[in-house]
Design the sequence.
């Protein structure tokens, strides 16, 4: 797996990102979505997850899930419009997987894409790295 590090944050080069700290992995018309290493480190200890129902239709920008941490409850936004194809039910019993492995076992939801044009709004790994650098003030 090809990664880049920005300070102590891991950014995978095979994913796309959002300005609200979700990552997207594309597999044909299926988008797997989770939160980034940066996001999970900001939230700290994740203690719960609210997942959508399979078959639910979502619009780009809708809240698709929520993550509860000792610090806050955070909305997870859908980077794409489509239908919820699958959810990571393992997170209901083991939400800490998002902290331990945000890019693999900590994935949150899979959405069947309806509009490929929306993918143009996603950030490349390099653009996301620049966003993190701006946030931490070390450009």
Sequence:
């Amino acid at each position: 797996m090809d990664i880049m590090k920005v300070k102590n944050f891991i950014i995978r080069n095979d994913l796309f990102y959002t300005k609200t700290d979700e990552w997207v992995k594309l597999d044909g018309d299926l988008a797997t979505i989770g939160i980034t290493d940066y996001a999970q480190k900001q939230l700290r200890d994740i203690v719960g997850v609210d997942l959508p129902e399979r078959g639910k239709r979502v619009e780009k920008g809708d809240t698709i899930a929520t993550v509860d941490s000792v610090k806050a409850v955070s909305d997870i936004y859908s980077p794409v419009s489509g239908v919820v194809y699958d959810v990571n039910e393992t997170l209901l019993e083991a939400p800490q997987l998002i902290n331990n492995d945000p890019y693999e076992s900590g994935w949150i939801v899979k959405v069947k894409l309806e509009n490929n044009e929306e993918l143009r709004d996603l950030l490349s790994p390099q653009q996301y790295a620049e966003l993190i650098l701006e946030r931490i003030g070390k450009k």
Remarks:
- The longest strand covers residues 63-69.
- The chain has a mean pLDDT of 96.
- The domain at 3-114 is CATH 2.40.50.100 (OB fold (Dihydrolipoamide Acetyltransferase, E2P)).
